[in-house]
Amino acid sequence: MIGKVHKFKSNVDTDVIIPARYLNTTDPKELASHCMEDIDVDFSKNVKQGDIIVAEDNFGCGSSREHAPIAIKASGVFCVIANDFARIFYRNSINIGLPILECKEAVAGISEGDELDVDLTTGVIKNLTTGKEYKAKPFPSYIIELINDGGLINHIKKMVK
User: Fold this and answer.
1) DSSP H or E stretch at residue 156
2) What is the distance between the alpha carbons of residues 106 and 54, in angstroms, rounded to a whole number?
């Protein structure tokens, strides 16, 4: 998938991803309209389907709410690439079908606005702007299945049919 980069620093917590004042809804579109607004007021206006968030350390720290990865996914973001993720955010992302990759080399070499081509099955991240290529650890096939099915609940529904 090819997308444009929206780059963030370290310690982007779940309260910044989706501020607590919007947690009275579970509607993905409403959450997406407020995604990242406390760190980038124009994020929801500028993000396009297939775009990619790149961040430094400890992305998704803070509370365990699933609203954060739901807001990111509903905003159109294809995946998040970071040096590392908070553990509960990592699991919540997989559960809702939001791909996340850890790759320090990529984070260091990618800038705001770069265009990336990300292959989840191989873990290859190609920076089409600079011509550089990075390798993240690819997801195992069962995680790819969860992501392709749109998350754990959809995957279970598909399995039960």
Assistant:
1) helix 152-160
2) 9
Residue 65 has a pLDDT of 84
Helices (H), 4-140: 14-17, 28-32, 43-46, 67-74, 87-96, 104-109
pTM for the full model? Answer: 0.95
Which residues on neighbouring strands pair with residue 7, listed in sequence order?
Answer: 54
d(CA 106, CA 85): 15
Q: In the Cβ-directed half-sphere of 40, how many Cα atoms lie within 13 Å?
A: 18
- How far CA 130 is from CA of 80, 101, 102, 133, 135, in Å, comes to 19, 20, 20, 9, 15
Tell me the chain's radius of gyration from C-alpha atoms: 15
